[in-house]
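note to self — DONT lose this again. spent like an hour looking for the file last time. sequence + predicted structure for the chain T wanted, 471 res
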Amino acid sequence: MAFFKKLKDRLFKSSSKIEEGLDAIIEDGGVEEEVEVSESDTTAADEAQAALAAQEAARVAAQKAQTEADAKALADAKAAADAVEVARLEVERGEREKAAQAAELERQAAEAKRAEEARQAEHAQQEKDARDAELARQAHAEEDAKRAQELQRVQAEREAEEQRLAAERAEQEKAAKPGLLGRLLGRGEKKTVVRRELDDDMLERLEELLISADMGVDTALRVTSNMAEGRFGKRLSTQEIKELLAGEITRIMEPVARPMPLYPTKPQVVLVVGVNGSGKTTTIGKLASQFQAAGKKVVIAAGDTFRAAAVEQLQVWGDRAGVPVLTAPEGSDPASLAFEAMEQAARDGADLLMIDTAGRLQNRSDLMEELQKIVRVIRKKDPDAPHNTLLVLDATTGQNALSQVKTFQELADVSGLVMTKLDGTAKGGVLVALADKFGLPIHAIGVGEQIDDLAPFDPEEFAAALTGLEL
């Protein structure tokens, strides 16, 4: 009986569903009928009804108790689950905090590592810069030492040559002076002179000699041909060959030996161009000093804005001669500086404005275009400017000077030449080739670093010096 009650209680939901189903079945289509109920039946029915009511009350109480027990168990389980969840969340929060702390430590370590690497890189760069500066200083010192040695060597050779020539002159004077018997008899002593017939072989060797002196094939052929005219087959001495050669060189150079023209225009703009290392900056300084000493008011524009050393060098020359030097920040547009310099020179009433330009190779079209831009800009101020465009050439470049003249003449309308460094080269014959091929005026030549080492070009002196002839 107890098991049945338990079974019934547990199957309450199922049984209720069946009961409800049965009631529904019966009610659907059923007909109400009256039945007779006896007293005994009534009593029994009442008793049964009372028993059923008692059972139902007990069942309801049990169900309530079970529901409360289930609710309590559910609440306890929920509380336990919440406690577990809280504990889990606490653990996760702790793990997240540890992970965050670890990440922060790792980030700090990475930042410290990067900072240390940056410090080391900066230190390494500083050391590299210091090494590079020291190497550059050493290279500059070595270059200065080599230049000084070269100058000493050239000076020593020049002095030795002068001594040799003086000795030869003394010997020649001694040989030319007649002896006592000769003076008494009115006769001089005989002098031995070596002569050679001027033939094809001799002319060919002369041509090779002139070509080796960078006079160029065409000019060498023309000079030797003129020398042979009317003299072929005659016997000539070394002195006579020197005189003939010097005469031909003088004949070629005389038409181009002209000083730089000066005009009444103020300021007269002189644009100085040339390749890297040709001596433009030094030439400008020397010319400015010479013009200033001659009573001209000169202004210099340091248009080589890409080389700080050029600006400093011009400023040194300007300080020496009392000539103002207009500059612009490094890397500035040289065309703008040239335009501003023209305006400043005009305000100052200057006679001459000499504009330095950056060294540029004749095969660099971008640099040549920049030079053309300078010319275009200054012509906006004065359509006739520049009034002189001087091309400075380095004699040590030899035949390469021909291509330089050709390129710069096309782009910058070169009006005259200045040849530098003739003291340190065996290629001085290139100046004859330039005069013969282009016919451009040669205003001056340079033979050293001092201000008086730049002098007006004298063709006779140059020809004599080139051939070793005494004047």
